[in-house]
Amino acid sequence: MRPATQAIHAAAPAREIGAPVTPPLVAATSFHTGPDAIGFSANDLGAAAPMFYTRWGNPTVALLEQRLAALEGGEAALAFASGMAAAAGLLLHRLAPGSHLLLSDVCYAGVAEFAQETLARYGVAVTTVDMSDPAAVAAAMRPETRLLHVETPANPILKLADIATLADIAHAGGAELSVDSTMATPIATQPLALGADWVVHSLTKYACGHGDALGGAVIGRATGIEALRKEAVIHLGGAISPFAAWLILRGLETLPARMALHEANARVVAGYLEGHPRIRRVYWPGLASHPHHALARRQMRNFSGMVGFVAEDDRNLARQLAARLKVWTYAVSLGKAQSLLFHIPTEDVLRASFKLEGEAAQAYRDWTGEGTFRLSVGLEDPQDLVEDLAQALA
Ligand SMILES: *Cc1c(COP(=O)(O)O)cnc(C)c1O
């Protein structure tokens, strides 16, 4: 099946007479079990174990996991309560005291903060590197490097990284590559096919698509996912609620259609912003002016709906936009039907989240100026989106 069909049909339950046509929401925490069916420990969990307790597995959650695995072309998937639970669970599972994590210098703020504050406290060495510069990545590898974690496109500045090249560098050094593909979605990019070992998603974003459920996932090899389930979901406990899984399953059905529209609307908005006299730079992977446009054309089948721009007097402009916009919403998050806009001041995020100094901090400033506006282009009529920006920017 192709993606648009998989999003609706992959892993669907058997078509028995009387069975529901849409995915059932199984709102149960435990399941009938006999004395010999399964042991009490997470260590007794095998691939063939029956449903037991919802933190271990649940039919609604299992369907979401199987559908995500199909869309990513992976052997297995594991759902989490949020994207942060997924990323933190994977990092804790793959790293140990004395091992080294090579992290993208720009990535989701929560992941950057968790790695540099919490993992470091547990004895994991964490260094950051510009993942769009393969020579710098190769030079930053250490004998004890176990994992490279990258986002492409990277939140919030939409830098890209070459997954196939990074996978080669990681594997040559005996490490693994994990790719946070939240912004690309499996409709644009399938990191596993390019050599990545793990794919991480915040399902809260495009996968859900409606901004009404938190969720996360990791997709990878079946044996790795089974070990991750024991440690990162059963023991750390960040299991997704069946209702959130059901909402995300419903969102996934329209993911391929929505991504086509997000991309088309983003093309209109990015093109408009690029010609606006108040705006200095616009970042969208589909623009020929994007520094990584050639890589985007190779690696992304869809340029997604995230647009960034840099403008003069950005703090005042942020206030003006928040006060005047009527169709766009000034709020965080991304990937939903409503268009969202948010301003991220450069010095704040460098200090509080990325902790970059010297050349790395300067490279970030060169990209974002004093601050960057992050736009999640939604599904409204693109003419209304442009007219609203025009009146608010005037
Ligand atoms: C939102 C986001 C996360 C965190 O996901 P939550 O579901 O909010 O916990 C991680 N990575 C990226 C790229 C994100 O955009």
Describe the structure.
By secondary structure, the chain is of the alpha/beta class. It folds into two domains: 3-253, Aspartate Aminotransferase, domain 2 (3-Layer(aba) Sandwich); 255-393, Aspartate Aminotransferase, domain 1 (Alpha-Beta Complex), CATH 3.90.1150. It has 15 helices and twelve strands. A seven-stranded mixed β-sheet has the order 1-7-6-5-4-2-3, sandwiched between helices. Strand 2 (100-104), helix 4 (109-121) and strand 3 (125-129) form a beta-alpha-beta unit. Helix 3 crosses helix 8 and helix 12 packs across helix 15. The protein is globular. The chain binds pyridoxal-5'-phosphate. Pyridoxal-5'-phosphate binds at residues 82-84, 87, 108, 110-111, 151, 155, 180, 182-183, 202, 204-205, 214, 216. GO terms for molecular function: carbon-sulfur lyase activity; pyridoxal phosphate binding.
Task: Compile the SSE list and pairings.
Layout: H1 3-9, H2 59-72, E1 76-80, H3 83-94, E2 100-104, H4 109-121, E3 125-129, H5 134-140, E4 145-151, H6 163-172, E5 176-180, H7 185-188, E6 198-202, E7 216-220, H8 222-235, H9 242-253, H10 255-274, E8 279-283, H11 293-299, E9 306-311, H12 314-324, E10 329-330, E11 340-345, H13 346-354, H14 358-368, E12 371-376, H15 382-393
Parallel strand pairs: 2-3, 2-4, 4-5, 5-6, 10-11
Antiparallel strand pairs: 1-7, 6-7, 8-9, 9-12, 11-12
Pyridoxal-5'-phosphate is lined by residues 82-84, 87, 108, 110-111, 151, 155, 180, 182-183, 202, 204-205, 214, 216.
